[in-house]
Amino acid sequence: MGEAVDGFPVVGVVGGGQLARMMAPAAIGLGITLRVLARDARDSAALVVPGTAVGDEDDLDALRRFAAGCDVLTFDHEHVPTAHLRTLQEEGVVVRPGPDALEHAQDKVVMRRRLTDLGVPCPRWAEVSSAAELAGFGAEVGWPVVLKTPRGGYDGKGVRVVDDVADADDWLARGEPLLAEERVGFARELAVLVARSPHGQAAVWPVVETVQADGVCREVLAPAPVREDHALAAQQAALRIADGLDVTGVMAVEMFDTAAGVLVNELAMRPHNSGHWTIEGSRTSQFEQHLRAVLDLPLGDTRTTAPNVAMSNVLGGDLAQMYPGYLHCLAHDPGVRIHMYGKEVRPGRKVGHVTTLGDDAGEVRARAQHAAAFLRGDIDG
Amino acid sequence: MGEAVDGFPVVGVVGGGQLARMMAPAAIGLGITLRVLARDARDSAALVVPGTAVGDEDDLDALRRFAAGCDVLTFDHEHVPTAHLRTLQEEGVVVRPGPDALEHAQDKVVMRRRLTDLGVPCPRWAEVSSAAELAGFGAEVGWPVVLKTPRGGYDGKGVRVVDDVADADDWLARGEPLLAEERVGFARELAVLVARSPHGQAAVWPVVETVQADGVCREVLAPAPVREDHALAAQQAALRIADGLDVTGVMAVEMFDTAAGVLVNELAMRPHNSGHWTIEGSRTSQFEQHLRAVLDLPLGDTRTTAPNVAMSNVLGGDLAQMYPGYLHCLAHDPGVRIHMYGKEVRPGRKVGHVTTLGDDAGEVRARAQHAAAFLRGDIDG
User: What SS3 string covers A250-264?
Assistant: First the structure.
């Protein structure tokens, strides 16, 4: 099962999460073969992609065996050692995005340094290794300060807001450098999704607003209700980063929309939660675009399919089973699009998302909120 | 791999062709598990659906083993013995559409009789078993006459136009009843796609024009350029048939658009080539709608996503390899949507389709024609 098709490429995805899972429909459409390297046979993508390999992305031999059957290697997440990827590249494996680009999504200090070199607007930042350095930075930009571990953070993990140096004692005691950033006042958070191919073709989607709670993305609104010059600056920043970092594939750039303009917060070098709305909301989804980009195929039309699109994440809540909720949700709103990831429900875990499209931004958002809340069990009807 | 997800249903599809294949993205989205019973591990759907079973739909034991792991049994094609399906039903298997409905898509005489009983407008027809009966029918409706084998026809096979009785000698010599139909003068061919659930909810998509060559569908244009009263009559006929035949799932009703109104030509009781445009062109694709219908979930919004949508089939032509053509097609038209089925190219074989969307019907159609012709090797650029 799952044999490759003569004349069509095989794309291998390291990681078996929902991002790899949502690449599968795009691959099925294009007739290309998708392979997945998952940590567990019950991972989200492993459930839907034939012939999924089970292995650890930290294991060079597992990566090597997996890559042997693929024309291009790409990623569901950024947690793959770049040293392994460099070795694979030397052995002739095509890795997209490459380790040099990927490093900027793995290490926030490397990212800040490079973006600053590229002239991309960022919050003021410093690498701090001691209480004295943090105190100096806080005195310069004002307290509280945002402190981040350079590596390993996601969904609010590895990030904290500290009111003074004492607040950071435990992290400083580890003796590892930290990234300190000014706490920016912003009107909203934005994300720009950009795709870039090895040939250098690039395409951006409209700028979206992301609504976060406890560091976790809850909603995405496309297009963002933002000043046109800020939207343009956001897209230009994303394109400059994609080019400057030689990104291949899809990259998400998370930003703050401030009175003075947009400032880059984070990068994700893969399809991203802020782009799930593109499955129905854009002529080309981020998942198809990612496959096209890593295969160096021409990129697709990124225009929206409706004036307003809203995406709400379905987080684990009180209900262990979400399928029974389909009866209400789909009857209540024949236009709602439900996506579930095959994941066991655990409190706060992203187990799916819903998307709605329409003319009125407020109505579209309310529909998505209702469906997501109903599925997780927050409301009765 | 491909394990079912706790609390979510398993839908089993008998047949591993492109229709089963295109149900996979819809199943992935909804988080339900799809299983396929294919004749060959290299079948179109077997390439993309984990854990595909290999077996013959004529083999009751193979069907029984397959059905044991499924909550609902449905079909990629109608060539499954209804006797087997009745046995499975008696054994507790949920079969949708059921054998009583399916029979109308298997036997054209059964279909004509039932539609006539329902008062659905059809071409004049007769069951003929002898030269005398055919001569009588020809004298009544005028020659030439359309002659069909009641069972086993598809894509123009099992259908011929005869100028006189002598023309039908070989088929009559078989001693099996044939379906004779008047040859209708029509302005265009239409198709109406309808979905119906066990609860009795039904939904139609806009009426489309189908363009055939040598009995094979080449293009589908949505919506059909047809008089509004004819479009309405076509949709009403499809809804009446779905209800009258107790259809569950998607059904395609092919029709002739004549000066006097619409006449029903054929039925297909499954997703259908005339509905491939719905993947991008409708808020709910025929594949998702079929899954929702057979699971008795509420049906989705069938509105179009653009004023005009065109679908062109990609038939096998001079090129053995179609992937290299992607470079031109996708650069030439960033909005074209390519679907390939993982099938080996053979002359005239349906190996994929392309879809385009836009404001102008003529431009949208020309774009789809260009992409399909380029992929098969008919033109150079």
Answer: EEEEEEEEECCEEEE
Domain limit, last residue, from B147, B162, B182: B182
**pTM over cut 0.80:** yes
B residues 303-362 near A, CB within 8 Å? Answer: 305-306, 320-324, 326-327, 330-331, 334-335, 337-342, 344, 352, 357
- DSSP string spanning A72-140? EEEESSS-S-HHHHHHHHHTT--BSS-HHHHHHHH-HHHHHHHHHHTT-----EEEE-SHHHHHHHHHH
Do B143 and B159 lie in one domain? The reply is yes
Q: Tell me, what DSSP letter sits at residue B216?
A: E
Same domain, B244 and B135: no
Which pLDDT does position B270 carry in this prediction? 97
- Residue A146, classed as helix, strand or coil, is strand
pLDDT in tens, B364-377: 999 999 999 999 99
Contacts of B24 in chain A (CB under 8 A): 24-25, 28, 48
**Residue-number span of the structural domain to which A359 is assigned:** 188-376
Please state, as a whole number, how many other Cβ atoms lie within 10 Å of the Cβ of residue B157: 11
pLDDT digits (tens, 9 = 90+) for B298-357: 999 999 999 999 999 999 998 999 999 999 999 999 999 999 999 999 999 999 999 999
Rounded to whole angstroms, how far apart are CA atoms A8 and A5?
6
Of the pLDDT bands very low, low, confident and very high (cuts 50, 70, 90), residue A2 is: low
Residue A378 has pLDDT above 50, yes or no: yes
B145-148, strands of its sheet edge to edge? B125-128, B178-182, B145-148, B159-162
Chain A residues within an 8 Å CB radius of B28 = 21-22, 24-25, 48
CATH at A154: 3.30.1490.20
| Phi and psi torsions of A260, nearest 5° | -85, -5
Are the C-beta atoms of A23 and A271 separated by less than 8 Å? yes
In this structure, what token pair is assigned to residue B128? 């003929």
Show residues of chain A in contact with B323, CB under 8 Å.
7-9, 31-32
Comparing alpha-carbon positions, the chain B residue that sits nearest to A323 is B8
Q: Are residues B150 and B297 in the same domain?
A: no
Helices A286-294 and A18-30 sit at what angle, rounded to 10 degrees?
70
Nearest to B335 among A283, A321, A357 (CB): A283
Residues A260 and A365 in one domain: yes
